[in-house]
Design goal:
single chain; 361 residues; extended
Length: 361
């Protein structure tokens, strides 16, 4: 608001700005004009991050105002001044001339293995929109796969032609023994079984599928690329594994980085692992589960195609057993057929489906 201050001072609204002596003086002047500022103490867990960000922003502005030839000298001068702080010496590392960046380490016999790099620097976050001036998501994924040490993919559906876009990079990752985990669904029957079969058989990927038909539990589309060097990257957005989404569709994807957004990367990893261990997502083996997956995809696809036959059930619902429920039924069967025990008590936690067991047993 123009009546609150001049263009160089604060305006009304929400903030999370570190209180400096200059800002304190500005707020005092505003208070004399009837404006009220609300502040609070930064918590001990957030304090290092908030203070470090202020110092980093200040150093950046100083360096931007200096000739390029003086950048390293100025940075080292600032770092050397930190040696006066008790316990700081072990953390202070002076910058070598250049400045230069280490881009890769490779065995001598593997020269060129890291020649391909993502267009977005590993330490930066970015928004990719598949616009002409942006690198396509498909290009970035190929480059990420070429340099990752572990790969996780979470998406609602996987398409054959989407897989073809990145198949050479997947083949190279498989040749290097890179573990690949994929979580997907039968949502609207869009996943193509041949794509999952190829992921498992040709690229040795571990695949888990949610067969739920009544509700769609997974809408997320995300990749996580872990690197032993610590420079992890991730993509979260609107792109499933389809050709259009990877190359020229109107898709938005945010690129994350363990350097720029470490907390988000850590939450990504933790949440993915929780899904991976969720019984609702079942391991897919083409030799064992192909028929079941094909049937589930066909049934899920009927809901979006007008004029096709619909599956009819008298109860109005279709029951599909979770792995732990199948185990319960198998144990009851063993008790009866093997041990000749016909009065069995099923004990299970709330919400695990005892009523369903009673109906199906």
């Amino acid at each position: 608001m123009s009546e609150l201050s001049d263009s160089s001072g604060p305006v009304s609204g929400l903030y999370e700005q570190l209180m400096t002596l200059r800002l304190e003086a500005q707020l005092k002047a505003l208070a004399e004009r009837g404006w009220h500022a609300i502040d609070d103490v930064v918590g001990p867990k957030s304090s290092p991050r908030v203070l470090a960000q202020h110092v980093a922003d200040t150093v950046r502005r100083i360096l931007e105002g200096l000739p390029a030839a003086e950048h390293v000298h100025a940075a080292n001068h600032i770092l050397e001044s930190m040696n006066t702080i008790e316990g700081a010496r072990e953390w202070v590392e002076l910058v070598a001339e250049g400045p230069r960046q280490l881009l890769a380490i490779a065995r001598q016999e593997a020269q060129g293995v890291y020649r391909i790099r993502p267009a977005t620097p590993l330490a930066e976050a970015a928004l990719l929109t598949n616009a002409p001036e942006d690198p396509s998501l498909g290009f970035e994924l190929r480059a990420e796969l070429a340099t990752a040490d572990r790969v996780d993919l979470l998406c609602a559906f996987v398409k054959w032609h989407g897989l073809r876009v990145i198949e050479q990079s997947l083949e190279a990752a498989h040749a290097r023994g890179i573990p690949i985990r994929v979580i997907t669904t039968t949502y609207i029957g869009a996943t193509e079984r041949q794509a999952l079969d190829r992921l498992v058989r040709q690229f040795n990927a571990e695949v888990k599928v949610n067969y739920e038909l009544r509700s769609t539990r997974l809408h997320a589309k995300a990749w996580l690329f872990r690197r032993d060097s610590g420079y992890d990257t991730a993509y979260v957005g609107s792109s499933n594994l389809s050709k259009a989404a990877l190359l020229d569709g109107l898709e938005w994807n945010v690129r994350l980085s363990s350097v720029a957004t470490p907390d988000v990367i850590r939450k990504f990893e933790t949440t993915f692992d929780s899904y991976w261990n969720d019984l609702a997502f079942e391991s897919y083996d083409p030799d064992r589960d192909a028929e079941r997956l094909s049937e589930a995809l066909q049934v899920a696809g009927q809901g979006k195609r007008a004029g096709t036959d619909q599956r009819i059930t008298l109860s109005g619902l279709e029951v599909r057993l979770y792995p732990h429920q199948r185990d319960m039924l198998e144990r009851l069967q063993v008790e009866r057929e093997v041990h000749d025990r016909h009065r069995n008590l099923l004990v299970a936690a709330t919400g695990t489906g005892k009523t369903v067991m009673a109906a199906l047993d």
